[in-house]
Structure formats: structure tokens, C-alpha cells
Amino acid sequence: MTDAQDKRYDVLVLGGGAGKNIAADLARAGRSAALVESRLVGGECPYFACMPSKSLLRSARRGETWEHAVARRDEVTRHLDDAPTAAEMAEAGVTVIRGRGRVARPGVIEVDGAEYGYTDLVVATGSEPVTPDVEGIGDVPTWTSDEALTRPDLPRRLIVLGGGPVGCELSQVYAAFGSQVTLVEAADRLLAAEAPFVGDQLADVLRRMGADLRLGVGATRAERTESGLRLSLSDGGHIDADRILIATGRRPRVADLGLEALGIRPDPKQGIAVDVTCKAVVDAEAGADGTTVWAAGDVTGVAPYTHAANYQSRVVVSNVLGKRREADYRAVPRAVYTTPTVYAVGVSPVSATGLELVAAGYDLSDTPRAAVENDDRGRVELYADRARGVLVGAAAIGLYAEEWMSEITLAIRAETPLSILTDVVHAFPTYGEAIEPVLRELAEQL
Ligand SMILES: Cc1cc2nc3c(=O)[nH]c(=O)nc-3n(C[C@H](O)[C@H](O)[C@H](O)COP(=O)(O)OP(=O)(O)OC[C@H]3O[C@@H](n4cnc5c(N)ncnc54)[C@H](O)[C@@H]3O)c2cc1C
Ligand SMILES: NC(=O)c1ccc[n+]([C@@H]2O[C@H](COP(=O)([O-])OP(=O)(O)OC[C@H]3O[C@@H](n4cnc5c(N)ncnc54)[C@H](O)[C@@H]3O)[C@@H](O)[C@H]2O)c1
Fold it and tell me: What residues bind FAD, as annotated (predicted)?
């Protein structure tokens, strides 16, 4: 420890989302651990992302009033009070350092003028929304999901820019509570990275709720008008609205972390490159000073979900403790919590390369459960690798798909033989029964 350092820790974690789990687990394992957090201990998920959006979606599904939905959302996010989570950290033996951290020099992090030494550094700084390059967008009223999920206002006319998970979930929320929603998506369909039927069926659902979908068009110009704002589109059309919700993607938060001093050159779009143990890839010439840098969560650009961040956290903890563990991303779920839910996992037929996929599918309307629920929406498709004869991907849209697709997640991860999968018995009447004919069809084709 140099004189300049205020304190030295075995492990310093930058970012208290998934990072808080790493700090707590390592402290419980006997390491001295500190967590540096510039905003709220707990990260984005509980306060600005997953939890408030899921709460509003549930309220929308149940037909609650907007006022009730907002009150419930604010309870779920504990009115942005992170004191209980900070207390949990203290109880686990973690020192919480409030402020923005950056690398001062190898082995030392600086936070608001104070310096802290480390042996292991974990970067878990998350991601931030990207503002699209649309002329005038800075001059009109905009929100990102952050404001949408913390403010009490219900815009009368809302443009949702982007038809990825954020755009789809929040379009459903605002359409359900009575906003006039127009969703603008540059790709030809919603959730364009997933199997086409998923985006097509979700588009139907949102249209039936009154949302206007403009697919395959880009925004070109935004300007203020007397009644609000006008967004011009690449097809020559325009939309008048009160506010634009920017949902055009996120990028890893890597700017100004000083990582270059450690021989780490993060890509602005892909984030910090990590190996299978979640150790950051470091330039060959970087000094062997006895310290190690790890990264977990959105900042790694691997899979931008809380469950993926938590998984990587567990991988980091094991490796810091010297128990080698390799991450396996073959079966990380991609769920969108609209009603009905979208659930995809493993290989997407849209982006599969180097694989010959065999596909089979089934409409949920043909299940007895659909009759019980009086809901004929949805479909499930499974994708197998012809060469190896195992499931490698799946996509579904349907009520509760986030629950009944778990067995397929396990099947992909475990590479369970089709002969066993086709022998599995599902309870009657469940949506899970839809999986049986799909597997039989796949087995016949292989
Ligand atoms: C609207 C929305 C809904 C979502 N819904 C879901 C969902 O339902 N399910 C799901 O799995 N995923 C969902 N996600 C994605 C999920 O929120 C992220 O994948 C997850 O939060 C990533 O965790 P993380 O720890 O990597 O980053 P974060 O949760 O962003 O945490 C990073 C933390 O680092 C802090 N930080 C950053 N830089 C510094 C610094 N220099 N010094 C100190 N602290 C710093 C930040 O303040 C932040 O608290 C959603 C995202 C959005 C935007
Ligand atoms: N349920 C969940 O797990 C969940 C929910 C929300 C968000 N997330 C994660 O958060 C991240 C951000 O989500 P997102 O939906 O903002 O990003 P995204 O990158 O998934 O989707 C952004 C969409 O915006 C479109 N777009 C970009 N620029 C545009 C423009 N100028 N005009 C029109 N369309 C444009 C893109 O074509 C794309 O379809 C994602 O990685 C997502 O997985 C997860």
C-alpha cells in the first residue's frame, strides 16, 4: 500500500448491480471487499429497469388504473431507496463506497479524490441507453426507459422509438393505460433478432390494443410544434406527439473508466472482452503486477439480462476464490414480459450460422389449455442441429411462456437426447403439452 492509498481491499467491485452479489459473496468467503457505486446500490434492475417495467406490465394486464399502477410500481422499487440493500452489503461485510470510480493506475481505483488499492478488480458498470442520430432529437421532449419507469406522467400521445424488448414492453404498458402509442422500428418487424413469428404475433397484439406500428421506417427529424412535437419518417410521413420514448438500444458503460492504464481496450459497442472465466482480456504488454481484472454483466456485451449478469457474477466469484469455473452461454433465456410473453433461448433461426437447423412448431390454440384460458394466441418452435441431433434453440410466444419454456432451456443446456425429451410426460391441461408434438415432429425429421 502506498501512502496515497486510503485503503486496500482484496477485491474492489465497480458497479453495484450484479456487482453487489460478487462483493457480498467474496466478503462472506472471507475476502476484504469494497463496492463502488455512483447511483443506487442494487444497480438498474430493481429501480429503473426489470422490476418497475414488470410491475407496470402486471398492472396493465389486471386492468388497474394508472394511478394505482404507478403507486404499486413505486412500492416495488421501494421509492428508489437503496438503504436496505446497502445495509445487506454492510451485513455481509462489504464496504460501500459512494461515488464514481475509475482506475488511477494499475492496482488503484480513485473515487472522488480518495484512492483504494485492490488485488482483484471487478468491472460491473452496466450499460446506458443510446440516443439515435436523429436531427433535432435533443430539442424535443424525450424520455429513456429511466424516466418512463420513474415518473408519474401518462403521455397523451407517445412515440416509442425502437421495437426491441424495451420498446415492446413499454408500448404495451402505455397502450394499455390509454396513451395513443405509435411505435417506430427501423427493421421490418418487432424483435427482429428473433424467429419472425414472434415479432409478427406480438405486432398483432399491440395493434389490437390500439398501438400504431410503423415498421421498416427510420426517424429522420424531430422538431417542436405548438402542440408538442413532430417526428418525420424516412417514408415521407410524420407523427405528431407529446413525447418520444427512446428505446433504440443500450451500450456497455465503459467510457472514462481509465481501463487503458490496465491494458484493457473496451469496444464502445461490445464492451469489455472477457474469456470463459470472465477475466478481462488484457494487452500482452500489460504489466504482471499481481492484480487481476474481471468483468460481469452488461459491460461485457455478452447477454444483456439480469440473469446473465448474475450467472457471470457466480463465475467470477468462483474464479476469484481459485475454483476454476467456465461460463457457458448456450442457453441464456431472452424473455419479453408482454402479454403474451415472448421467450427465446439458444440459437435464433434469424442469426444461426454454420448450422443446419431442423425446425418444427405448434400453435398453442391447439392445446386444451388454450380453451381453458379462452386465449388462442401463441406458438412454440424448436430448432435442432441436424448434425448432432440435439436441440440448440427455441422460440415461443404465449401466456406464461417464461415459466413453461424452462424445461427447453434445460434441454438445450444439457443437450438432452431427443429420445428422452419425447418420453417426457406433461401435466394436462398445460401449455407445456404443446412441446410434445413439436419434439415428435423433430425426431421424425432427424
Ligand atoms: C427497461 C428495461 C427493462 C429490463 N427488463 C429486464 C428483465 O425483465 N429481465 C432481465 O433479465 N433483464 C432486463 N433488463 C436488462 C437488465 O436491467 C440488465 O441486464 C441488468 O441490469 C445488468 O446488470 P449489471 O449489473 O450489468 O448493470 P446495472 O444493473 O446497470 O448496474 C451497474 C451499476 O454500475 C454503476 N456504475 C456505473 N459506472 C460506475 C462507476 N464508474 N463507478 C461506480 N459505479 C458505477 C451504475 O450506477 C449501476 O448501478 C432490462 C433493461 C431495461 C433498460
Ligand atoms: N425482458 C428483458 O429481459 C428486457 C427488457 C428490456 C430490455 N432488455 C435489454 O435491454 C437492452 C436494451 O433494449 P432495447 O429494446 O432498447 O434495445 P435493442 O437493441 O434490443 O432494440 C432496439 C431497436 O431499436 C431499433 N432502432 C435503432 N435505431 C432506430 C431508429 N433510429 N429508428 C427506429 N428504430 C431504431 C433497432 O432496429 C432495434 O430493433 C437489450 O439488450 C435488452 O435485451 C431486456
Answer: 54, 101, 125-127, 298
